[in-house]
């Protein structure tokens, strides 16, 4: 297995690590108090660091593959799969935390199912649909939005300490998060439509 593919697999492996620091543990009523207190206080910052590392592997694997001519069908599949697992898992975690709308995430998941279905049809005809530039832009906007949301609690705390009594600054922080996530949803829809329109010939017959 070449290095780009290993980086894609590493991105998948980092998903549960990120979630471990995002979500307090609660298993059948068992909740480790010390660990959950750490998660509630500092977990999101650690999760953001791990997520950023995972996001950087997405940039690195493509550049390495192109530079050293290591592009393979497996690599195209793993790169796309790793992106989806990483982004959707973190979004589901934010739903669990009550930060983002389940409807927005459903739109994103439906887009991924539609494009993945198109890829399966193409694969059945011996072709592989690689990630397009608009798809990469979509992924970048998603990752930027999620990274911001991860740092949002820290920003809220900083402004709460530094600008006590001025709630407008606090509201602005969450509004920015909502706008960034809205942009990534819009880009997800646009890229999905682009894939389906350009791949509609696969659906004929």
Q: Class by helix and strand content?
A: mainly alpha
Instruction: Give the CA-based shape.
Output: globular
Radius of gyration: 19 Å
**Main sheet properties:** none
* Poorly predicted segments: none
Fraction of residues in H or I helices: over 70%
SSE arrangement:
Elements lengths: L2 H20 L10 H35 L5 H24 L5 H23 L8 H30 L4 H32 L7
Helix pairs in contact: 1-2, 1-3, 2-3, 2-5, 3-4, 3-5, 4-6, 5-6
Short description:
By secondary structure, the chain is mainly alpha-helical.
Keywords:
about 200 residues; mainly alpha
Describe the model:
The protein is mostly helical and 205 residues long. It is 80% helix and 0% strand. The chain contains six helices and no strands. It has helices at 3-22, 33-67, 73-96, 102-124, 133-162, 167-198. It is globular, with a radius of gyration of 19 Å. It starts with a helix and ends in a 7-residue tail after the last helix.
């Amino acid at each position: 297995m070449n290095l780009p593919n290993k980086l894609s697999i590493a991105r998948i492996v980092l998903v549960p690590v990120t979630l471990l620091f995002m979500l307090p543990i609660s298993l059948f009523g068992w909740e480790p108090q010390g660990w959950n207190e750490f998660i509630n206080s500092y977990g999101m910052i650690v999760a953001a660091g791990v997520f950023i590392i995972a996001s950087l592997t997405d940039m690195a694997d493509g550049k390495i593959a192109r530079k050293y001519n290591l592009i393979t069908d497996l690599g195209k599949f793993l790169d796309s799969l790793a992106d989806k697992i990483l982004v959707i898992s973190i979004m589901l975690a934010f739903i669990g935390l009550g930060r983002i709308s389940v409807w927005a995430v459903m739109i994103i998941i439906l887009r991924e199912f539609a494009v993945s279905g198109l890829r399966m049809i193409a694969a059945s005809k011996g072709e592989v649909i690689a990630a397009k530039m608009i798809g990469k832009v979509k992924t970048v906007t998603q990752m930027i939005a999620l990274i911001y949301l991860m740092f949002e609690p820290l920003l809220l705390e900083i402004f709460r300490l530094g600008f006590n009594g001025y709630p407008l600054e606090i509201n602005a922080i969450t509004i920015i998060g909502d706008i960034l996530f809205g942009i990534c949803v819009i880009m997800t829809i646009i890229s999905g439509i682009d894939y389906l329109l350009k791949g509609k010939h696969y659906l004929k017959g």
